[in-house]
């Protein structure tokens, strides 16, 4: 810039400081994060890499209390390019939370960069099926038609997918040598419906069964309930 003052040419020089705003870059080695529920503390989840764009030392920290309570951060390299291992601090339970949202912060002298990672909790078969009722009872007459549905039992499972798929089975309860009359009733292995398979014989008034509900997990888990079927004489 030129200015004339009293016949003297003054040259004024202005310098403008260039502010560089290039925060660090942060990324992971996995596009999809998942871990099995009940995995032990210290299980490695993912590796986080952070790089400074301005040749500063860059560090990575957890950004919030929820993330800090769930995972550890272990630095393996700290510098212009830094690497951290993320490992479990808390044992995940899918029945409590199906997804954890973990947020990390990369920091250097020129700024911060946030990275949020969804960690999907995979189901394991750690819950046995349970029956809605601990005991079932039905009263039917001798004239009941073959094929009639007399009772429905229901079991539920807190797991997911195949681990929650239930198959039903039925057997005489505490009958040392059950006679063929116990074949009069059958249970549908998928629906839990109990129906009359063969005509009832006079003289038999009570049938005691144990019904089992077994899931399709590995290992298979099961539970049982009691079913009493009484034959009315009226």
Task: Label this structure with key terms.
19 strands; four-stranded antiparallel β-sheet; 1 helix; 3% helix; 49% strand; mainly beta; four-stranded mixed β-sheet; single chain; rod-shaped
What does this structure look like?
- This protein has one helix and 19 strands.
- It has one helix at residues 65-70; strands at residues 2-5, 8-11, 25-28, 33-36, 44-51, 59-62, 71-77, 81-88, 99-108, 111-122, 130-131, 135-141, 149-152, 155-156, 166-172, 185-187, 193-196, 206-215, 222-232.
- With 234 residues, it is an all-beta fold.
- The radius of gyration is 35 Å and the shape is rod-shaped.
- Residues 1-17 have low confidence and may be disordered.
Question: Which geometry do the CA atoms define?
Answer: rod-shaped
Our Rg estimate from Cα atoms comes to 35 Å
Helix content: under 10%
Strands, total number: 19
- For the largest sheet, list the strands in their spatial order: 3-5-8-7
The succession of helices and strands, N to C, reads: EEEEEEHEEEEEEEEEEEEE
| Beta-strand residue fraction | over 45%
Determine the structural class based on helices, strands and strand pairing: mainly beta
Short précis:
The chain has 234 residues and is an all-beta fold.
């Amino acid at each position: 810039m030129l200015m004339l003052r009293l016949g003297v040419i003054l040259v004024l020089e202005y310098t403008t400081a260039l502010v560089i705003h290039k925060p660090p870059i942060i990324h992971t080695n996995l596009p999809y994060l998942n871990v099995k529920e009940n995995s032990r503390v210290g299980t490695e989840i993912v590796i986080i890499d952070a790089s400074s764009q301005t040749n500063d030392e860059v560090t990575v920290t957890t950004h919030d209390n929820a993330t800090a309570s769930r995972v550890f951060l272990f630095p393996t390299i700290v510098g212009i390019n830094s690497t951290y291992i993320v490992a479990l601090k808390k044992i995940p339970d899918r029945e409590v939370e199906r997804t954890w949202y973990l947020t990390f912060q990369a920091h250097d002298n020129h700024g911060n960069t946030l990275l949020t990672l969804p960690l999907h909790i995979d189901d394991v078969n750690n819950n046995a099926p349970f029956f809605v009722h601990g005991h079932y009872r039905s009263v039917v007459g001798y004239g009941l038609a073959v094929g009639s549905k007399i009772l429905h039992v229901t079991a539920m499972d807190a797991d997911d997918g195949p681990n929650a798929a239930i198959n039903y089975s039925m057997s005489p309860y505490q009958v040392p040598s059950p006679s063929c009359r116990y074949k009069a009733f059958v249970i549908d292995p998928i629906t839990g419906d109990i129906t009359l398979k063969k005509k009832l014989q006079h003289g038999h008034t009570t049938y005691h069964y144990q019904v089992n509900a077994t899931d399709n997990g590995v290992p298979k888990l099961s539970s049982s309930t009691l079913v009493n079927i009484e034959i009315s004489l009226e």
